[in-house]
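Weekly puzzle thread! Below is a chain. First person to post its structure in token form gets bragging rights.
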Amino acid sequence: MAGDGASPRTIGILLFDDVEELDAVGPWEVLAYWCRSHPEDGWAVTTVSRDGGLVHCAKGLVVGAEHSFAGCPPLEVLIHPGGRGTRPQLSDAEHLDWVRRQREQAPIMASVCTGSLVYAAAGLLAGRPATTYWNALGLLAELDPTIALRPDDRFVDDGDVITSAGVSAGIDMALHLVDRLAGTERAREVRRGIQYDPEPPV
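Winning reply:
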């Protein structure tokens, strides 16, 4: 926390090829605004990918991860986005093992969109309430029939595991994280700061 000389606690956003851009960048906008505007809260946000370096997202955006799996600092929160790139991860033993290792260390595991499919494949959602992108709810149930699906929820907070619905719902989930970690007034300040007031025009 601020003022005690301690290093900031770290939130990690996972990046991978074919990640859905807003799944990662939406939470990044929320959390980076918070961490940069209020370093006294004692939090930092970073990005991680398997090998570090450049990642090619689902719609062509190229972004760079700050850390590799091997060089990733200890995380207090891991956010696993979704996108087409999650499909091969469902049978990627190395990726699932890394997710399980993070589960053993990180107090909060969060997902956006089909990131929850990976958590299900890794066994993290057994017997828990969860949600995902609307078109992937059936697959989530197939991966683990014990999951209590919440198809109408923007995000589901089950304590140490938080899942959110598709794409833009990750922004709601990230604001909820700020609320949990720094309080409602701080979360409202961040929401105002990024001018997040959804009023769909269509």
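Puzzle host: Confirmed. Bonus trivia for everyone else. Residues 9-193 form a domain with the Rossmann fold fold (CATH 3.40.50.880).
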